[in-house]
Design a protein that fits this description.
Largest sheet: none
Mean pLDDT: 83
Low-confidence stretches: none
Keywords: Membrane, Transmembrane, Transmembrane helix
Protein name: Flp1 family type IVb pilin
Order of helices and strands: HHH
Strand content: under 5%
InterPro entries: Flp1-like
Pfam families: Flp1_like (PF16982)
Organism: Ventrimonas faecis
Length: about 70
């Protein structure tokens, strides 16, 4: 009887482990970060040019205020 209880207890623990999805959110966040980092690496030059243009525009317009 004790052996049957141990086997049943192991099955319950395995079932509870398979139903536990608490780590799924972490995996999703990691995958999103990997995709975002990949996009930044791919479009690095375009992003750099865009930011340079934006800061040049900000600088030129701030001179008009002063």
């Amino acid at each position: 009887m004790l052996e049957a209880w141990k086997k049943n207890s192991g099955m319950r623990e395995l079932s509870a482990f398979m139903e536990d999805d608490s780590g799924v959110g972490v995996i999703e966040v990691v995958l999103i970060l990997v995709v975002l980092i990949g996009l930044v690496i791919i479009f690095k030059t375009q992003i750099t040019k865009l930011l340079e243009n934006i800061f040049k525009e900000i600088e030129s317009q701030s001179k008009e205020v002063y």
